[in-house]
Each structure stands twice: as C-alpha cells, then as structure tokens.
Amino acid sequence: MTDPRPALLAATRDRRACTGESHQALTALHRSGADIRAIAAADPEQAELEAAATLAVCRIGIQGAHPLGIASLHPEPHRLTMRLTPRPYVVRLWAEALLPCHAWDAHTRTDPRDRVGGVYGLRWHTTASAVHLYRPRTPGLLRLTGFPARWWPRAAAAAERSRGPLVTGPDWTPDEHAAEAGIRDTALRPTALLSPLLRRIRATAGTGAVQATDAWAAYGGLRLETMDGPPCAELARLLGPGSCGPGWTAASAWCACERPAGREGCVMTLRTPDGRWTVNCTAQRSPRTAADLAALSAEGDRRAFA
C-alpha cells in the first residue's frame, strides 16, 4: 500500500509557506473533504475588513520574529483566524493600529478620515481563547489567537491612553460611515490586492532573525517592502499563478539575491491577471540580529500595557 504522507506533504507545501498552518491541521482538513491546495478568497465584506486591517497594521511598522507579528493564519471565506506572536508588545501594537479612536483635535478637522483613526467601524469582544474583531451589521470576522485573551482589554486601554478616546458604541458613528465611504472602492485601499496578501502574509517571511513586512497604496497599486524576506524567486512563485497564489505575475525584476552582499535593494514588479493593478516589491536585509530582537522585544513587553 502506498504511503499517502509524502504526497500530502508535497500538496500542502505552498499553502504552509503562505499561511504557516501545520501539516497536521491541513491533513485534518483534507480528511474532512476540504481543498487543501488552494487558499480561499474572502467574501466581499470580509475582504474589505482584511484590507483595512492590513493597511492599519502595516502602518505601525511591527518588527519581530514573524511578518506583522503573525505566526500563522487560517483563511476561510467568511473569516480569517490569525495566530499572533505571544508577546505583549505585538498585541499592544495590533490594538493600537486597529481600534478606532477619536482624534484629540477632531473638532478642528473637516475630513472625517482625519477625525477618526484606526479601522472604521471596528468593534471587539473576547472569548476564552480568542479576540473577535468585527463591524456591526456587517459580515466578516477577524479572530486573533495565540496569546491570553485577557491581554486585549489591557492593550486597548493602553492604546486609548496614547491615541485618544476609543470609539466603542454598538454601531458605526457618522464620522466612521463618512470616512469609510471616502476610502472604499478607491485606489487608497486596493482591496483586491490587500486581502489576498494578508491571506498569504507568511509568503513574505524569510529566514532572518527580524521580520518586517510593509504595504501601502501607491502608484496605482501597492508598494510591498520586506525585511529579511524570502528570495525574489520564492516570493514570485508563492504569489504567482500556482494553486495557492493570487495569480500575480512578475513583469520585471532586478534581483540581488545571489550577490555577495545579498538582498540589498531587490526590486520586482508583479501584475494582477487582469492587468489592472501592480505590486511593486522591494527587499532589504535587516541590520538587526537575534540579540537585537530579544532586547527590542523585552523593552516592548515591559512598556506594552503601560
């Protein structure tokens, strides 16, 4: 009888590289009849939530052992479960990036996007083992796991002390509605790029001690920067037309991966299948070492809930 394990390992290789899911977890999905080769696309409102969260978390600039502090994730059409690095400073940064707050000088601002920060409409509650992030009366869910859920209220309180009063009502505020209307379906938040990227964020991880991934809207598409990320060929393959990729193809590249200095200034342009969007990728090598990361993490943890 043929041993199915090597075939399953090969079948899940790219998905594991993109999501960080374990082979055991994917094997269980396979036994339930799920397609373990592909990564499910998000439903429309779920995709909008993921796009908004991606921009917000990238903006705060997390440097750690995993890109955006995400150790692994499990994508489903109606929700996205993310296991974060179990460090207080990572949880604090996520809370600070995502939770909507009123600007201290909101009364002087005319643009609603300047009066409210964070992800517009986002609300939260905790369970015994997870934090649920959602928008009232809107489908879509982000589940944060991997750390004690009791950390989240402490992180939210710390974020409020540093950023301003959090928006906590049971429904969207008028400013949140107006701010969301001003950015949805625009080039300022290219959902068609950001949601697929978040669902494959582990594809941007390399072997360096300090990982950092940044993405923002620019040049009629997306700018994607990695620190100590994967070789260009690996990134292009995982984000390409394969079974797990979003189908982006490399239009041009200047690769320094094989040069002696290594990873200094790699540049690559990816295009979506319809040619509408481009993703401009750059890769750098981090000057930080494992010892630097340990010191950075310890200091961040000490101040996380202050």
Keywords:
306 residues, alpha+beta, 2 domains, five-stranded mixed sheet, 10 helices, 12 strands, 35% helix, globular
Count of the separate structural domains: 2
What is the overall pLDDT average? 91
Q: So how many helices?
A: 10
What is the percent of helical residues?
25-40%
N→C terminal distance: 59 Å
Strand tally: 12
DSSP strand content:
15-25%
Low-confidence regions: none
Order of helices and strands: HHHEEHEHEEEEHHHEEHEEEH
Q: What would you call the structural class?
A: alpha+beta
Alpha carbon gyration radius = 19 Å
Q: Biggest β-sheet: count, sense, barrel?
A: 5 strands, mixed
Please give the order of strands in the largest beta sheet.
1-2-7-6-5
Shape: globular
Describe, in plain words, how this protein is organized in 3D.
- 35% of the residues lie in helices and 22% in strands.
- The chain has 2 domains: 44-191, no CATH class; 205-290, no CATH class.
- A 5-stranded mixed beta sheet has the order 1-2-7-6-5, with helices on one face.
- It is of the alpha+beta class.
- Strand 1 (70-76) and strand 2 (79-84) form a beta hairpin.
- It has helices spanning 5-19, 23-31, 44-60, 88-98, 112-115, 151-163, 174-183, 191-198, 232-238, 290-303; strands spanning 70-76, 79-84, 101-102, 116-117, 123-126, 131-135, 138-145, 212-218, 221-227, 249-254, 266-271, 278-284.
- The protein starts with a helix and ends with a helix.
